[in-house]
Amino acid sequence: MKLVKAIIKPFKLVEVREALNEIGVQGMTVTEAKGFGRQKGHTEIYRGSEYTIDFLPKTTIEIVIADDLVGPAIDAIVRHAKTGKIGDGKVFVLPVETALRIRTEEHGENAL
């Protein structure tokens, strides 16, 4: 099992969720986040005053999936989150030692 963590632009969430659903991903955790990468934020003018927006809005998606779904999941995320512009995001893949469904006490991939 792997934890796939993707940081994407917020307006791409519905498209990415639908693509992941199509390949068989049954659940995910979504968190609103703020951050920056290479773009380092930007400067705006509001009512004549200039100010810097250091942290840009992002959405974090976390899914724990079986090893055989990792490749298709990454492909779906990249294909549907990509705009071709700076700030499209990142995808991280981490190993998951075990999983436990609290309600039924199922372990491993059965808990997914």
Automatic annotation (TrEMBL):
Q: Does the keyword Phosphoprotein apply?
A: yes
InterPro entries tied to this protein = N-reg_PII, N-reg_PII-like_a/b, N-reg_PII/ATP_PRibTrfase_C, N-reg_PII_CS, N-reg_PII_urydylation_site
O-UMP-tyrosine found at: Y51
Q: Identify one Gene Ontology CC term for this UniProt entry.
A: cytosol
In its keyword annotation, does this UniProt entry include Hydrolase?
no
Subunit structure and binding partners? Homotrimer.
Q: What is this protein's name?
A: P-II family nitrogen regulator
